[in-house]
Amino acid sequence: MAEKTLKRGRAGNLMAIGGPQAVVYIGLAAILIIAQIISPGYLKMDHILTMLRLAAFVGIASIGQTFAVLTGGIDLSIAYVITFANIVGSQVMYGENQNLPAAVLTVLAVGAGVGLVNSMGIKFLKIPPFIMTLGVGTIVQGIYMIYSGGAPKGNTAPLLREMCGNNIFGRVSGILVLWFILSVVVITVLKFTPYGRKIYAVGINQKAARFSGINVSGIIFSVYIISGITAAITGFLLVGFTGTSYLDTGTKYATTNLAAVVIGGTAITGGRGGYGGTIAGAIIMTVIDDLLVIINISQAGRQVVQGIIILLLVFSYSQQKKN
Amino acid sequence: MSEEILRMSHICKSFPGVKALKEVDFSCKKGEVMVLAGENGAGKSTILKILSGLYQADSGEIFFNGKAVKIKNPLEAQKMGIAMVYQELTLVNEMTVAENIYLSIEPTKKFGLVDRKQIESSIQEVMGQYGIELDLQTMVKDLPVAQQQMAEIVKILIRQPELIILDEPTSALARKEVTQLYEIIRSMISMGKTIIFISHRLEEVFEIGDRVTVFKDGSYVDTKKISEITEDDLIRMMVGRSLQNIFPEKTQPEQEIIFQVKNLNVPKHLRDISFSVRRGEILGIAGLQGHGQTELFNAIYGILPRETGEIITAGESLKIGNAKQAIKQGLALVPADRKNEGLFLLRSIRENLAIISLDQRKKLGIFIDGKKEKKFSLDMKEKLAIKLASLRNEVASLSGGNQQKVVLGKELAINPKVVLFNEPTRGIDVEAKREFYNIMHDLARSGVAVIMYSSDLMEVIGMSNRVAVMYEGTISAVLQGEEITEENIMYCAYGASLANKGERTL
């Protein structure tokens, strides 16, 4: 009996130190080694920086997903918000630097607005996050189809193109720098502020959170708004990256942003994990996708692989929890 | 003398940490109404759940109609002719009354289709026999609770049981409906059925029962014919146990009133509740389970919306609309259900201790001050003597008593002026209980208003300077000093009048 308690204590300790989040970095290292074997030269500095730049989009889009999943929710509208922001941002900028401030503000407002609608449905109408965000995503899709008339207009401002280029800080892309800054902020918020603690509390046990005086509605509103905003930022940056906007910009992020969170060791049931793991998850998803391209797997085949990865991970984590 | 339909002998049942039933005997005769009585936790529900197949006895024998039987699950019990109407209703809200009644035993026509006509006619027949009226096509969710209870009973009757167990069937019913239920019970008896009845209302026991069996602390006390005993006899059978000496000496309250609740009303739950607590005093709340104690605490704490009611500390009326405001104004609650309401089981002990008081330990205005938090949690661990390997372990790794200390610790972090203890010692060992009693004492002595509800009467008696007894959502009596006896509390808890004992109000 005493022994049993002791064991549980140790497992608890390990979880507190990092648990699945520590494991994910070992996984990342393993995948990079495999990549180097399949494609010698994979780990050259230039290629690493290129991969990180691609991963930054997944990583930024996954910030909001990490928050949502930590509270025990999920945001399936992210891919649609990315496209929406992509189209709106491009149209407002119309290739002019002077339009940048207006474009940034519009795009952030769009993201925050979608997040607000999501959270209102979840909190007031008690619609499960899964359904609510999927429904809102579909509505957003309809709106940007109408808005763009099926043919998105506009293109990136030169300044944004610079920022998304590969050499703004020496060889490092501006996007990568932005991702790094955002990562530091997000990890700090989650680990070292009362707000972060409350997110975990709500994810573990909403009822106890309420009894502990936590404003549960406020937390839920905030995470979906953050999620809308980080998705919108991703869509906006993609204008700079590709030079213009497309109707299917967000599609490839639909599964990857969730996969990054889950691979990163954040429990899909909420309350455990963090953004540190998501960063590795975003890089892993990008590298796997790249490797599949290298060995000539089609886009369709890559989607199958992504889906399988998500299911396997969720399954393996749920097994861990049972034990 | 009629024959025995049921005999349960030497039944034992343990749950982790508790011996719920110790070698108890229980039997009833064909065609009688047998009442099972006793305090909270006496083992009444446990033995009936064994009889209905929901629990398995650890040892002991059950004879039904003279034959030794093993009841492995509720379906077997049902097949034997034993049916139970549970305290919590088990109907499916989104189905009609008829569908519910025939759930899982639907008669079918060709191709496996449900034969609605036959269902309705046979339900009508049964309802006719017992004089029950229900609209069969109504959705269960649209029925008032009393009618849902009737539907539940029809659902049982249609299965033609011999022995029917009613676990507090009247707790949700109004007077008139109770009378109707008595009629139905009488027709059941005239149809040759046998009834086992758990009640928390004294008058009911005498109104409807033929015999009564009393349990106490998981042991059998006695069985008597109702016609041969008085209310006093019954109360005396239910109480009467020596005070274990684990309670600290009672505090000496001063005159100054430090906490007050005035005219608290919560629709459906609480009616006109007023009480006050003096400096240095522990106010005990007693009463049988489900008479509004938890609702009272939750309403004071802002979790349950109040219709009316003033909450006053130090002469000042508080504005409390949610738990956050309650905490800000110095109220703390140790909730009854620590796993669901008190703790974040999968987070660390340190995080749990800190969660309510996070804003008190900030640096640079926004960050958690890790050093202060570590010191705070170590201090709390020392103060409450929490036994733990590391503050970083999940709180789930602790024993029940230590988990409960974590709940208390997180509340004490805000230096509350009022602490509401809802079942503070449920499921914790005696040593931890003793520590809890001492902590409550120290709190009261230091000028904190301490209010405690416990379903363990001895605890209420041993700890409280005064005891407010709740009955049907209101305070039926406030006892103090010599008046605080098990007997008096049980009187008031069963809704009997204490007139002959000198009722007091605040």
Automatic annotation (TrEMBL), chain A:
<keyword id="KW-1003">Cell membrane</keyword>
<keyword id="KW-1133">Transmembrane helix</keyword>
<feature type="transmembrane region" description="Helical">
    <location>
        <begin position="168"/>
        <end position="193"/>
    </location>
</feature>
<keyword id="KW-0997">Cell inner membrane</keyword>
<dbReference type="Pfam" id="PF02653">
    <property type="entry name" value="BPD_transp_2"/>
</dbReference>
<feature type="transmembrane region" description="Helical">
    <location>
        <begin position="77"/>
        <end position="94"/>
    </location>
</feature>
<feature type="transmembrane region" description="Helical">
    <location>
        <begin position="50"/>
        <end position="70"/>
    </location>
</feature>
<feature type="transmembrane region" description="Helical">
    <location>
        <begin position="12"/>
        <end position="38"/>
    </location>
</feature>
<keyword id="KW-0812">Transmembrane</keyword>
<feature type="transmembrane region" description="Helical">
    <location>
        <begin position="130"/>
        <end position="148"/>
    </location>
</feature>
<protein>
    <recommendedName>
        <fullName>Autoinducer 2 import system permease protein LsrD</fullName>
    </recommendedName>
</protein>
<dbReference type="GO" id="GO:0005886">
    <property type="term" value="C:plasma membrane"/>
</dbReference>
<feature type="transmembrane region" description="Helical">
    <location>
        <begin position="100"/>
        <end position="118"/>
    </location>
</feature>
<keyword id="KW-0813">Transport</keyword>
<dbReference type="GO" id="GO:0022857">
    <property type="term" value="F:transmembrane transporter activity"/>
</dbReference>
<feature type="transmembrane region" description="Helical">
    <location>
        <begin position="253"/>
        <end position="271"/>
    </location>
</feature>
<dbReference type="InterPro" id="IPR001851">
    <property type="entry name" value="ABC_transp_permease"/>
</dbReference>
<feature type="transmembrane region" description="Helical">
    <location>
        <begin position="214"/>
        <end position="241"/>
    </location>
</feature>
<keyword id="KW-0472">Membrane</keyword>
TrEMBL record, chain B:
<protein>
    <submittedName>
        <fullName>Sugar ABC transporter ATP-binding protein</fullName>
    </submittedName>
</protein>
<dbReference type="GO" id="GO:0005524">
    <property type="term" value="F:ATP binding"/>
</dbReference>
<keyword id="KW-0067">ATP-binding</keyword>
<dbReference type="GO" id="GO:0005886">
    <property type="term" value="C:plasma membrane"/>
</dbReference>
<dbReference type="InterPro" id="IPR050107">
    <property type="entry name" value="ABC_carbohydrate_import_ATPase"/>
</dbReference>
<feature type="domain" description="ABC transporter">
    <location>
        <begin position="6"/>
        <end position="242"/>
    </location>
</feature>
<keyword id="KW-1278">Translocase</keyword>
<keyword id="KW-0472">Membrane</keyword>
<feature type="domain" description="ABC transporter">
    <location>
        <begin position="252"/>
        <end position="497"/>
    </location>
</feature>
<dbReference type="InterPro" id="IPR027417">
    <property type="entry name" value="P-loop_NTPase"/>
</dbReference>
<keyword id="KW-1003">Cell membrane</keyword>
<keyword id="KW-0547">Nucleotide-binding</keyword>
<keyword id="KW-0813">Transport</keyword>
<dbReference type="Pfam" id="PF00005">
    <property type="entry name" value="ABC_tran"/>
</dbReference>
<dbReference type="InterPro" id="IPR003593">
    <property type="entry name" value="AAA+_ATPase"/>
</dbReference>
<dbReference type="GO" id="GO:0016887">
    <property type="term" value="F:ATP hydrolysis activity"/>
</dbReference>
<dbReference type="InterPro" id="IPR017871">
    <property type="entry name" value="ABC_transporter-like_CS"/>
</dbReference>
<keyword id="KW-0677">Repeat</keyword>
<dbReference type="InterPro" id="IPR003439">
    <property type="entry name" value="ABC_transporter-like_ATP-bd"/>
</dbReference>
